[in-house]
């Protein structure tokens, strides 16, 4: 039996909800696999989000780690290919910090690849009728910061790990010009991603 660590983020900016965490909770409530699913919510704070994620990995020693965040404006579920060594925030984080053009890890590599089977995940989600596409990078906000910390901590350890951005949900009330996806479809996409990642490790 494998163990999966699945994380989402707390609300940030002006939002009162974050579909990354809401979808993680929804999936956990419906989880029926024999594999163990551990879920944790991360703070939207540079440094702290990544540290918490790495601490959860150390505490639970998962076989697969999927970190999830929301990307307002995207219409598809988008597994990320690269975590880049850059903090460059257009808005402050939840602690009021707004770093510009600084590294996530001083002296660290410019980027790390996801070790999730990104293409297979995209194909499987799309095959289930849910809009999905690969994304090159996770940006330079807290999502990327946590993703970079995760990959940095797992180099050479054989853990399948990566990050998935999900669209906003209608419940966020962001306006008609912002693409949304129903929460249930997001949760289903995450379930598919985990299934593909687990199968790839067999």
Name the average pLDDT. Answer: 97
Measured by DSSP, the beta-strand proportion falls in: 15-25%
**How many structural domains does the protein architecture include?**
1
Shape: globular
What's the Cα radius of gyration? 15 Å
Distance between the termini: 11 Å
CATH topology: Aminopeptidase
Q: Structural class of the secondary structure composition? A: alpha/beta
* Separate helix tally: 5
Main sheet attributes: strand count, strand direction, barrel closure: 7 strands, mixed
| Percent in helix | 25-40%
The CATH superfamily title: Peptidase C15, pyroglutamyl peptidase I-like
Runs in which pLDDT lies below 50 for 5 or more consecutive residues are none
Quickly name the level 1 CATH class.
Alpha Beta
Listing every helix as H and every strand as E from the N terminus to the C terminus, the arrangement reads EHEHEEEHEHEH
Report on the architecture of this protein.
The protein is of the alpha/beta class and 202 residues long. The protein has one domain (3-201): Peptidase C15, pyroglutamyl peptidase I-like (Aminopeptidase), CATH 3.40.630. 33% of the residues lie in helices and 20% in strands. It has five helices and seven strands. Strands 1, 2, 3, 4, 5, 6 and 7 form a seven-stranded mixed beta sheet that branches. α1 (19-30) links the parallel β1 and β2 (36-42). α2 (48-60) packs parallel to α4 (142-153). It starts with a strand and ends with a helix.
């Amino acid at each position: 039996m494998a163990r999966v660590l699945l994380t989402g983020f707390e609300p940030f900016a002006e939002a009162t909800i974050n579909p990354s965490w809401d979808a993680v909770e929804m999936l956990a409530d419906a989880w029926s696999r024999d594999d163990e699913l551990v879920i944790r919510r991360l703070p939207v704070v540079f440094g702290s989000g990544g540290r918490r994620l790495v601490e959860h990995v150390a505490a639970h020693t998962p076989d697969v780690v999927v970190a999830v965040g929301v990307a307002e404006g995207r219409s598809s579920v988008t597994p990320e290919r690269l975590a880049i060594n850059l903090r460059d925030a257009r808005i402050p984080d939840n602690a009021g910090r707004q770093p510009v053009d600084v590294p996530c890890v001083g002296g660290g590599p410019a980027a790390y690849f996801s070790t999730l089977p990104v293409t297979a995940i995209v194909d499987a989600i799309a095959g289930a009728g849910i809009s999905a596409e690969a994304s090159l990078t996770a940006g330079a906000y807290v999502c990327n910061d946590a993703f970079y910390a995760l990959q940095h901590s797992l180099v050479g350890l054989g853990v399948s790990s990566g990050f998935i951005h999900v669209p906003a949900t209608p419940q966020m009330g962001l306006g008609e010009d912002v693409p949304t996806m129903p929460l249930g479809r997001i949760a289903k996409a995450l379930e598919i991603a985990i299934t593909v990642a687990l199968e790839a490790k067999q």
